[in-house]
Design goal:
Layout: E1 4-8, E2 15-20, H1 24-41, H2 46-62, H3 64-75, H4 79-99, E3 106-108, E4 116-123, E5 126-130, H5 138-150, E6 154-157, H6 163-175, E7 183-185, H7 190-199, E8 203-209, H8 212-223, E9 228-232, E10 237-241, H9 247-259, E11 269-275, H10 279-292, H11 311-326, E12 330-333, E13 337-340, E14 345-348, E15 351-354, E16 371-377, H12 380-388, E17 392-393, E18 395-399, H13 403-412, E19 417-420, E20 435-436, E21 439-440, E22 453-460
Parallel strand pairs: 5-6, 5-8, 6-7, 8-9, 10-11, 10-18, 11-16, 15-16, 18-19
Antiparallel strand pairs: 1-2, 3-4, 4-22, 9-21, 12-15, 13-14, 17-20
The structure holds succinic acid.
Succinic acid is lined by residues 134-135, 209, 232, 265-267, 426, 432.
Length: 463
């Protein structure tokens, strides 16, 4: 069995670095150290934890260019997006540096004069995170920052495709003064490390961003020791364009949500559901804009769409496009590839499909790629039916200037995140998370620190 993870540049297939895979013994030792640090870290006062987090954020910003370049090298995303992700990553640290100081309890009026009731919060213990390759910095800090702010030690296993960014962020946390046993990383395959994490009695919480099948497995395994779980799983976001929508604005926002990170995000619009009276105009314009996007190496200054992460991701996207075409879809833009299996790079040009129907795989499964399938609707009820017809419930978008239409869609869409005339609803200050098989719990906002806290209630009697 290989002892190294080979990190490759997805834009060229070239080897970037070889990273040591940690043995089971080493991972258990890291877990033990994390566990032992809990006593000390949970007693560090909230203002000091906040100060250390702010230091971490500042130091990351001082290394912004280095980290952005590392991210483009291992993930492929355009350098401008990597720079944006460094800011997005530190925004979580900044937010939770503040929230650390607002972990309040409360007093509850007692039912007799002789009692006092006090409710307090305490950190849950050691947290283990498994993070994805699509946002190697922000998905790590979105978990680490609230854990550390709450007083929990943190151990992360980054995706095998993109461990370097995470490893560097952990080093910078140590430089910032966060103790080396309080934040750690380990490397290895998801299934091996995941099992070590879930079976450890020392770990009190598993937080995971990734696919729904892996999330289900982690939930099952975590049940053995009744761990807390936060699961940010797959999505299949609908984007509804009502008849009255401002078309130019809707197209601009659709472009932003659909083609960010080459369509490799959980919240990417995956099914575009357009009123039949405007579908022609919308589709043509979207195809025109999609064709203008520059696809290439993320280090080229004018690149807007980088490579697909690997062959597996590429084959899935191509299979969905081919299935759609076979079942009657028409290609308005894209369906062009620059791929070399030997070398190990895979690019897909932004693709727009029309004449799409519900039998196509692309309407049933997450694509994780730059493909925009357009289906039409007549009535709002029909649009909602199409939108909700999935086990997923992460993000949904709709475009309308009519408040009744907007209110109806908001009330009826079964999604945790909804953008009304907004294709970019993410942020450190909002509760990010999904309904149904898209996950459990929320990350970000005031809600995002709660999953790292236990509620303890004290009843004082005989007063
Ligand atoms: C994701 O794709 O999981 C995260 C996207 C975001 O935070 O906007």
């Amino acid at each position: 069995m290989s002892k190294e993870i080979i990190v490759k540049n997805p834009a060229t297939g070239e080897i970037v670095k070889e990273v040591k895979i940690n043995s089971e013994e080493e991972i258990n030792e890291a877990i033990k150290q994390g566990h032992d640090s809990f006593k000390k870290w949970s007693k560090v006062n909230a203002h000091e934890r906040s100060r250390l987090l702010s230091n971490w954020s500042r130091i990351i910003q001082e290394h912004k260019e280095e980290i952005a370049e590392m991210m483009t090298l291992e993930n492929g995303k355009p350098l401008s997006e990597s720079r944006g992700e460094v800011d997005y990553a530190t925004s979580y640290i900044d937010w939770y540096a503040e929230e650390a100081k607002r972990i309040y309890g409360r007093t509850v009026p007692a039912s007799t004069e002789t009692k006092r009731i006090i409710v307090s919060k305490q950190p849950i213990g050691l947290v283990a995170a498994i993070t994805p390759w699509n946002f190697p910095a922000a998905m790590m800090t979105r978990k680490a920052a609230p854990a550390l702010a709450a007083g929990c030690p943190f151990i992360v296993k980054p995706a095998v495709e993109t461990p370097l960014t995470t490893m560097r962020l952990v080093e910078l946390a140590h430089e910032a003064g966060i103790p080396t046993d309080v934040i750690q990383y380990v490397n290895g395959s998801g299934s091996v490390v995941g099992r070590i994490f879930t079976s450890s009695e020392y770990i009190r919480k598993i937080t995971f961003t990734g696919s729904t099948p892996v999330g289900k497995q982690l939930i099952k395994e975590s049940a053995e020791t009744v761990k807390h779980v936060t699961m940010e799983l797959g999505g299949h976001a609908p984007l509804i364009v009502a008849e009255d929508a401002d078309l130019d604005f809707a197209i601009k926002q659709t472009m932003a949500t659909k083609f960010r990170n080459a369509g490799q995000t959980c919240v990417c619009a995956n099914r575009i559901i357009v009123h039949e009276n405007i579908a022609d105009a919308f589709s043509k314009k979207l195809a025109e804009e999609a064709s203008k996007l520059k696809v290439g190496n993320g280090f080229d200054q004018d690149t807007q769409v980088g490579p697909i992460i690997n062959e597996k991701g590429f084959s899935k996207i191509v299979a969905q496009i081919e299935d759609a075409i076979e079942k009657g879809a028409e290609v308005l833009a894209g369906n062009q590839y620059k791929a070399d299996k030997e070398a190990g790079y895979f690019f897909i040009h932004p693709t727009v499909l029309i004449n799409v129907n519900l039998d196509m795989v692309i309407m049933q499964e997450e694509t994780f790629g730059p493909v925009a399938p357009i289906i039409t609707f007549k009535t709002l009820e029909e649009a909602v039916e199409i939108a909700n017809n999935t086990p997923f419930g992460l993000a949904a978008y709709f475009f309308t200037n009519n408040y009744k239409t907007g209110t109806y869609l908001h009330d009826h869409l079964d999604y945790g995140i909804i953008g009304w005339n907004d294709g970019a609803p993410s942020g450190a200050h909002i509760p990010f998370g999904g309904m149904k098989e898209s996950g459990l719990g929320r990350e970000g906002g005031v809600e995002g620190i709660e999953p790292y806290l236990e509620t303890k209630y004290l009843s004082v009697g005989n007063l």
